[in-house]
Every structure is written in C-alpha cells, then in structure tokens.
C-alpha cells in the first residue's frame, strides 16, 4: 500500500485534497471534508493486473489519479459515479 496526498484549490472539497491508497482488493480515495471513496480493483482491469510496484507508482492530479507505468487514469468524478474502467 502506498499513500500520497495532494492539495488543489478549486473551491470544492472534491478536489481540494485527494489521498489515494491501493490495497490488494480495493482502491480507496480520501477527499477533503473526510469523505472516502472505496471501489473494488476488479472495476479497473489494468490496475488489478498491475504488479505491486506498478500500483505504487502513481501521481495525484487535480482531477484524480494517474499510473504512468500502466497508462491508467481514474477521475474522482468517475469514482463518485461508480463508473468502471472500459
């Protein structure tokens, strides 16, 4: 598990602070204001198939999380809508 945090000033608690953690079976994203989004890794096939090192190499962006090693991008908006990766 790797945890990173980034602050972005957009005036909304959806993007002021994003904290991400990848566990063996789920992705947990913490938002400003204390809300958390937990989604199963099976929703994101590239992320689910990635090695632990690939999962731990991610970047927090203003809109979500990017994993450069597997070219995966997940948005906070998509996670809030419970959208699976295509």
Given helix and strand content, the structural type is alpha+beta
**Number of separate helices:** 3
The helix content, as a percent range, equals: 10-25%
Count of structural domains: 1
Q: Reading side by side through the largest sheet, how are the strands ordered?
A: 1-2-3-4
Form type = globular
Gap between N and C termini, in Å? 24 Å
Largest sheet: 4 strands, antiparallel
Low-confidence stretches: 1-16
Radius of gyration: 12 Å
Could you characterize what this model shows?
This protein is α+β, with helices and mostly antiparallel strands. It has a single domain, classed as 2-Layer Sandwich (NE0471 N-terminal domain-like), CATH 3.30.2020.40. It is 17% helix and 37% strand. Strand 5 and strand 6 (64-67) form a beta hairpin. It is globular.
Which SSEs are present, and which pair or pack?
Elements (H helix, E strand, L loop, with lengths): L2 E5 L9 E6 L3 E6 L4 E5 L4 H5 L2 H5 L2 E2 L3 E4 L4 E4 H5 L6
Antiparallel strand pairs: 1-2, 2-3, 3-4, 5-6, 6-7
What descriptors fit this protein?
globular, disordered N terminus, 3 helices, 37% strand, alpha+beta, 17% helix, 86 residues, NE0471 N-terminal domain-like
């Amino acid at each position: 598990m790797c945890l990173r945090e980034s602050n972005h000033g957009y005036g909304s608690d959806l993007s002021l602070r994003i904290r991400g953690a990848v566990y063996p079976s789920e992705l947990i994203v913490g938002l400003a204001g204390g809300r958390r989004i937990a989604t199963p890794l099976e929703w994101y096939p590239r992320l689910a198939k990635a090695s632990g090192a690939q999962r731990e190499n991610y970047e927090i962006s203003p809109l979500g999380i990017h994993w450069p090693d597997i070219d995966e991008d997940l948005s906070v908006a998509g996670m809030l809508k419970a959208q699976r990766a295509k």
